[in-house]
Structures are given as C-alpha cells and as structure tokens.
Amino acid sequence: MKIDPYLEKIIQDEQLVEILNTIFDGIYITNLGREIVFWNKGAEEITGYKAKEVMHKRCSANILNHIDENGKLLCQAECPLTNCIKKDIIVKEKVYPKHKNDHRFPVFTHVAPLKNENGKIVGAIEVFRDITKEEDYKILQEKFNTFVKRFISKNTYDEIVSQVTEGKSEMNELKDLTILYLDIVDFTTISEPLSPNEVADLLNNLFGICDVITREYYGDIDKFIGDSIMATFIDPNDAVGAALKIVEALKHFNNDYTMRNKSEIKLHIGINSGTVVQVEVGTQDRKDFTVIGDVVNTAARIQSIAEPDTVFISEATLARLENKDQFEFAGDKVLKGKKEKVKVYKYKA
C-alpha cells in the first residue's frame, strides 16, 4: 500500500527519527493497511526484530502476532491498530506479542491514529513498553501476600497495608468489638497418647473448620494460642452465630475423628463484648497487631468456666443481641482476676 505523503514526511524527518530512536519504549508507525513504515531502536531491543526485518510488513505476518490476556489472537479480530484507525480512538491495552526468539512477553501498548493537515487519518502510531519485570513482581507480590496472610490475622494485614500506604505512624485504636474465645477441653489428656504430627493434624483440621466458619460470619481470628483460638467480631450476633455453627460442625468432625481415635473432642466457648484497644505489641524487630483490655480477659475467663459444647456469653454481649431469648441466665460467676462477680448466660440447647 502506498505511503501517505504525511507519513513519508514524518519518517524522513531525521531530527524526529533521531529523537524517537533515543526512547527506550518500542515505537512503530503503520499506514492504513497496518504495514509497518517506521520501527525505532527501542522496538528492536524489545522484540529482537531489526527494522529491515519488519518494514512494509504487518505485525500479523508471523512477526508479533499479538494475543490478549485470554490467549485470543488479536491480529485477526480485535486488533488495536484496526480499532484505532476505524474508530478514530486511542487504544490502551496489555497484550502479549511474540519475540523473535519465539516466546511471548507482556507489554502495555498505546495506539493512536495519525492524521494529516486536513484531519484525515493516514495511519497509526503504537508505543509499547515491556512490563515483564512488573508482571513478575506483581505475581511475586501476590504470592507473598497469600503466604503472609497464612500467619497473621486479616485485621493485622489490612492495618499494615494501611500503615504503609497512608503513612500512619501508629496503629493503636479503640474499638467496640465482640471477643470469642475457644478452647479444647482436656487437651493435655487427649494429646498425650498422640505423636507430634498427630497433634498438629488434629489442631490444623479443627482450627481449619473454625477459621472457615469465623470468616463466614465476618469475623477474624486474632491469634491461635496453643489449643485455643481468639477471634474478633464487629457484630456480636455474628460471633454467636459462628460459635453455634462451630459447635454443630464439631459433631460431624467427631464422627470422623472418633472412628480413628478413642477420644471425643469437646470445646469451651466464651464470648464478651465491649471496648478494646487494637494495638501494636512486640519489639522493634517483630510486632503483632492484636486486641487487649479487660473485655478480652473476661472473654477468656468466661470460656474457662463454660460447659463443654455450648456457648457462654456475658451480659454485655447479651445486651447487644437481636435474639436474647436464645440464652438463659447461668448465674453470677466468680472469674479469675475479677473483683466482682460476672453475670453469665448460657445458650439454650
């Protein structure tokens, strides 16, 4: 196809060509037939193709053969150059061209129509940048984030991200939360005849169920403490819902576990609500983000006196519930570390 005089003028402008060749990004210009009429040094470096190898050819002529993120060949259908020229639009996309060495790599490309003095489209210019390193970093970052989330709570992760992105100097904050404590009854007796690997399997399998249910009810496991779990909830109704579902799930867990072991697993569960402090604790080298305060301690004490496989809650939690009738008064209890007796309520089985 004949080159428009305007394009001819551009590619024969030595000063402009020199400037384009100093740019690290790949740049090429095509006529209306998508035939390449200019190919800069950056394009040579990125793709491996020299200008003389691609001149007056289409990129679909076994040169770049772009595909999109889903593997769709763009040169035959949704070609960015074609869309740019036909629709008079600027196209920005991530695509995967083929290198001369026959491997594909990611680039971010900008395609814009070129117009002559009369405003008529006479071709297009494409500027593309190799983003292989950025993509590799993105994948590595996602893998790292997934790995880190296995070892810290969601609240901790979110707060760390917030601190880094927003430049927060500290993370201490007062919040009204509901705390759920869960503990395996007679864990020492249960674990004594088991090997270390069997103990680990027991805890991981049981706590895995608890984690799924906690997340289902919009809670967050703050920490695992030996054979115990401490979880936080914004809504006390969610905390109670999660606790009851864990008790129900334990029945199915025991159906399988008791077939292989003599011991049946039972749980103490205690819940308390109130103002806690979300705070950084630890050393300069290692910190944890957790909740502390009397509300947390009381939840742990209620759990310690709770009857197996039911749910005990404080009056503070009861007052926040939508359905208070599902609990009955269990008495004024003496809790370790508390000067006054604490009113405790038990789920009506």
Written overview of the protein:
- This protein is of the alpha+beta class and 349 residues long.
- The chain has two domains: 5-132, Beta-Lactamase (2-Layer Sandwich); 167-347, Alpha-Beta Plaits.
- 38% of the residues lie in helices and 28% in strands.
- It is built from twelve helices and 13 strands.
- The chain has helices at 5-11, 14-21, 41-47, 51-54, 80-87, 132-149, 154-166, 187-191, 196-216, 236-260, 294-305, 315-320; strands spanning 26-31, 36-39, 91-95, 107-115, 121-130, 173-184, 220-225, 228-233, 267-282, 287-292, 312-314, 327-333, 342-347.
- Strands 6, 7, 8, 9, 10, 11, 12 and 13 form an eight-stranded mixed sheet that branches. It has a five-stranded antiparallel sheet with strand order 2-1-5-4-3, sandwiched between helices.
- The longest helix has 25 residues, at 236-260.
- The protein is elongated and about 95 Å long.
- The protein starts with a helix and ends with a strand.
- The mean pLDDT is 85.
Report the strand count.
13
Q: Tell me the number of helical segments per DSSP (H or I, 4 or more residues long).
A: 12
> What sequence of helices (H) and strands (E) makes up the elements?
HHEEHHHEEEHHEHHEEHEEHEHEE
The CATH architecture assignment of the largest domain turns out to be: 2-Layer Sandwich
Residue ranges: pLDDT <50 for 5 or more in a row? none
Please identify which CATH superfamily of the largest domain we are dealing with. Nucleotide cyclase, GGDEF domain
Name of the level-1 CATH class of the largest domain: Alpha Beta
Structural class: alpha+beta
What percentage of the residues does DSSP assign to strands (E)? 25-35%
> Can you tell me the number of structural domains?
2
Largest sheet: 8 strands, mixed
Rg (C-alpha, Å)? 32 Å
Gap between N and C termini: 84 Å
Helix content: 25-40%
Shape: elongated
CATH topology of the largest domain: Alpha-Beta Plaits
